[in-house]
Amino acid sequence: MLEMSSRPPDVVCLSHLRWKFVYQRPQHLMTRCARDRRVFYVEEPVHDIGISPYLETARDGRVTVVVPHLPIGGANDIEMQRHLVNELLIAADVRDYVLWYYTPMALAFTDHLMPSAIVYDCMDELSAFQGASPSLKVFERQLMQRASLVLTGGRSLFEAKRHLHRNIHPFPSSVDVAHFAQARRIAVDPPDQASIAHPRLGFFGVLDERLDVALLDGIARARPDWQLVLVGPTVKIDHASLPRRQNIHYLGAKAYAELPSYIAGWDVALLLFAQNDATRFISPTKTPEYLAAGKPVVSTPIRDVVRPYGDKGLARIAADAPSFIAACEAALREDAGSRLRKSDAFLRRMSWDTTWDEIRGLMDRCVSSTVLRSARQTRQEGQAALAG
């Protein structure tokens, strides 16, 4: 009878997000996954002039980051990526493994592989994002049919997709409380924030089509005495299209390790998300991170922020500039002690370690089921051969 290896299966993760871009869900989960097994994080390809296809690999902690390099104008990107993935598995002696997808588009060059299990971590409704491939929904349907386990990045996304798979589970964004709680003890501002006056209302995250630029501009115009601080890279939108006022400060991308230093100097933490297709199912990781940092939170009515954070009184919810301004004014006046006691009690039930432990249990059960099915099939084939 077949038995599970003493070493857990490797994980080959296929992602649309660069490992070194913004530290978020994939990085939190894959770094924890790599504590007891090999993890290969395969990014989307980089296209170069006049090269032959090759793989660039680098270690970040225990995770191996893999970047395919393809020639510009190559005849068939999909076949080249298929060849490079095969090359990776052979070179690294990857035999017993789980395929973990963040992007269904990767199925195009991995559909020939025979993993022990397939995990689809659907962290966002990618088909609603600007620039999404028209083929994405087709590949997602195929991936749902193949997947052993489906995870969703929030409750609303789970409710939208729960009918599509028999083994689907919601895992909303969690938080590294200790990391962000550093903000409560930091008294010195980073140099590029030190000269900004108070009150400061801050936002960190990617600045893209999900940012409510009209709301940002409306708040800044109505309250010129407030300083609006935005920390994060600008992606998919023209940086010049962002509102420009003396009290709006764009500080650019910062490393995950730097974020507590910036949040420490804010008076209110904001979730400035527009109400559009790209934000319909998001579950912002920054919500519990803001709370762990000890800051009052004001958000637009994102479903996964309203429930549970708004419903539990952990965040103020406002849909337009006047009500958002009123909510920020209330946040500036509130009793911090009462808020901290309430938010800390809520956060005690949350951690990325706990989230990973639960996901690992689900994944390992899928792998065990595959082993048992293989053993049963082998036994049946053996019995049939003897009978023949």
**What gyration radius follows from the Cα positions, in whole Å?**
23 Å
What is the CATH topology descriptor of the largest domain?
Answer: Rossmann fold
Number of domains: 2
Mean pLDDT level: 93
Shape: globular
What does this protein look like?
Helix content is 37%, strand content 18%. With 388 residues, it is of the alpha/beta class. Strands 1, 2, 3, 4, 5, 6, 7, 8 and 9 form a nine-stranded mixed β-sheet that branches. A six-stranded parallel β-sheet has the order 12-11-10-13-14-15, sandwiched between helices. It is globular, with a radius of gyration of 23 Å. The two termini are 21 Å apart. The C terminus is likely disordered.
Using brief descriptors, characterize the structure shown.
388 residues, alpha/beta, Rossmann fold, six-stranded parallel sheet, 13 helices, 15 strands, disordered C terminus
Describe the structure concisely.
By secondary structure, this protein is of the alpha/beta class. It has helices at 25-33, 77-91, 136-146, 155-161, 177-181, 191-194, 213-222, 259-263, 286-292, 303-310, 321-333, 336-347, 352-387, and strands spanning 10-14, 39-42, 46-48, 54-60, 63-71, 97-101, 117-122, 149-152, 168-170, 200-204, 227-231, 248-252, 268-271, 297-299, 316-317. The chain folds into two domains: 10-174 and 352-387, 3-Layer(aba) Sandwich (Rossmann fold); 177-347, Rossmann fold (3-Layer(aba) Sandwich), CATH 3.40.50.2000.
Indicate the topology.
Blueprint: E1 10-14, H1 25-33, E2 39-42, E3 46-48, E4 54-60, E5 63-71, H2 77-91, E6 97-101, E7 117-122, H3 136-146, E8 149-152, H4 155-161, E9 168-170, H5 177-181, H6 191-194, E10 200-204, H7 213-222, E11 227-231, E12 248-252, H8 259-263, E13 268-271, H9 286-292, E14 297-299, H10 303-310, E15 316-317, H11 321-333, H12 336-347, H13 352-387
Parallel strand pairs: 1-2, 1-6, 2-5, 3-5, 6-7, 7-8, 8-9, 10-11, 10-13, 11-12, 13-14, 14-15
Antiparallel strand pairs: 4-5
